[in-house]
Amino acid sequence: MQNVVAEDRPEIGLSVVVLRTADNKAEILRVLAPLGVLLPNGLGLNVDGKDIGRAYFVRCFQDGCYAEVILEQPLLDTLKTGKAATFIVFQTPEEGIGIPVELNGFGEGFAALP
């Protein structure tokens, strides 16, 4: 798990975790965003300046809102070889807030998943 904040907005942070499902059939990238983000816009992802796409929020609890994607091989390879990811949350349809996440060690961490 990695907890990160926006460089220019320290009150906006994310928790990012990769986990394996209980049946060992899939790996999931789960991101916890703060309450108050614009849910219909989803969570954007860029890796090394390349737009990867968006994940949609699946549920919200008192601690925030969760976006999840299954880590299929192309995305997994991108994360393993990438240097920096930027997750983007939206407070308005026009205002995206980029939150940087270093990818150094991602491959090793992924290989060590139980």
UniProtKB/TrEMBL annotation:
Record InterPro entries: IalB_sf, Invasion_prot_B
Protein name (Swiss-Prot/TrEMBL): Invasion associated locus B family protein
Pfam family, one: IalB
Domain of life, source organism: Bacteria
